[in-house]
Request: fold
Amino acid sequence: MPVLPDYEIDDIVERYWDDDEEYLTEKDRQFLVKNNALHLWEAAYFLDLVDTYQGSCKSLTEVHSRFLEDFDLWDDLENLYFECTACGWWYEAGEQGECPAGETWCETCSEEQGYGEEE
Reply:
């Protein structure tokens, strides 16, 4: 079964990276499937997504959110990183602090708000 070289997969990832409407056209999806490379493209796109948001205060774009939903990768992202709902920065999962239900705070925001302190 044919498999595409990394540079071709990276080219397809970069072609759509800044697109506000789609992360992959149906034509390119079929091309990747035909070449047994959709899973490789998915992994490359996910890694670029993680690299883009890690340590930043950018909110996920609608396209990136749709990618995570369509490929069922939300849990994978949340196992690695989270966006602090208090400050908006992305942190590694191990840096999550205590916070009210429905929130996800980093340790710094948690400490600033007095969560986790002994009374």
